[in-house]
Design brief:
Length: 70
């Protein structure tokens, strides 16, 4: 039981430390436009962003260029 409590305490302190670091960093969480389409082998190119980021725009341009060549 002591091992369980010690492990729980260590993980709890780690999570609290990470949370404090994130709060002090003053950055907001950012999502990715494209999500699963960035993973090789998954052919889903739907983008829910109204204004895709530069990286996603480059990916879309490369996909269109490869379709034109085929």
């Amino acid at each position: 039981m002591k091992v369980f409590l010690l492990t729980f305490l260590i993980f709890g302190l780690a999570i609290i430390g990470l949370a404090i670091g994130w709060l002090l960093n003053n950055r907001s969480l950012k999502g990715s436009c494209g999500g699963l389409s960035g993973i090789p082998g998954i052919e889903k190119s739907d983008c829910s962003c109204s204004n895709p980021c530069e990286k996603r725009q480059r990916q879309l341009a490369q996909q269109q260029a490869s379709r034109k060549q085929a």
